[in-house]
Design a protein that fits this description.
By secondary structure, this protein is an alpha/beta fold. It is built from 18 helices and 14 strands. It is globular, with a radius of gyration of 23 Å.
Amino acid sequence: MKKYVLLVLTVLLLTVLVLSCGKSRGTGKAVEVQFFHTTWVPEMLEIVDEAIAEFEASNPGIKIVQTRTNWADAPSQLMTSIMGGTPPDLIMCNPGMLAQFRGLGAFADLTDRVSKEFLDSLLPGALPIITRPDGRIDGMPQEGTTYTLFYRKDLFEQAGLDPNKLPSTWEELIETGKKLTRDTNGDGKIDQYGFGWPVAANNANIYWINWMYQAGSPVSVFEDGKWVSRLNGPEALAGTQFMVDLVRTHKISPPNVVEYDWEGAANAFVSGEIAMMHNGAWVVSAVKKKGPELEGKWGTVILFGGPGGKVYRGYPNTFHLLEASTHKDEAWAFLEYLYKTPSKRDEGLSIAGSFCKAAGGMLFTRDYVAYARKNYEPLLQPFLDALDYCRPEPLDPQWQTLNNLFVPSTIQQMVMGQLSPKDGLTLLHTQLEKMHGN
């Protein structure tokens, strides 16, 4: 334990030293703003490139230099750049990255830069994620998503079910799922299951949290100046047990669900291996591409609730200025340009809004939701409904480390029956509290 604490203190000390002596990277008279992001959708990349070109034309003293990476590699690459004394100025984060680097004090305080008008425009699910425990603002919400229930209308009808009556509680999920779990070809083996969700790799963490939220667990809380695990609580156990029971006891989910990432679940949905699935907004376009023959035969609806009510994991990703940046004003000028400049692609949206739309996600503002209500297709409307109930994953600085080291394998072992939910949660709770130093 002493070695672990010493290592953490050493990393924190080095980080503070780096953050206090960030390098200036100018080229000639133009100030170079280093922009680190994970954009990968082609249309989103086009929007970013166009915005940079137009911003630079209007601000000849500023040059935006992009570094593109992927979500899997982003945390380590960002940490390497910070520890190496060459941190970027503007970065893109998901909630796990946000919590990790916020815990290191890596983000600049934006409280005095963000207008009250903009903060008032944010949805309830956005403000908590850009607000530090001390109440200061250190980020801007950008493209984000919610998750809903996908269902096959044709498979409902074949099972004698009304496709307009979807499960709204855990109990109804089990009841409906059992009727949809069938041997369709008469060979004595189940080839169609009622429900599926992604469990492979980091997907395990994303959806496991949702079960615990629906059971009423806060998972991890910040109290008395420190983070404390709630994975040892009865609500966390209830949510985890229910998740496991879908496969082990109720048998409405296939044993190979542990092999599903988001795309694997989508493939199973299109092929008819599962009749319902829990997945994100971006999967709507994926299902269309994978199963064009299913047009009109499937739909989406707001997800069922649990004992703790309707609570759904959902979040915006975020933009941040790094505290180590020596070009905060220039980086903020570009960020402000994205949010205030009208889009040339989508009337009624800012550039930031178009960026979100291209991802199949949404900007977590009231104006954006009003636009989406008028312009989004019916299959995407339930994702807007879910915004009223969404909650991000725990913003615990140690949560991402726990997930990287222990969560996926532990969740998969529980789902496969190799580890009981109680023992699995005890393991994860113990590890998280060790990381907290409690």
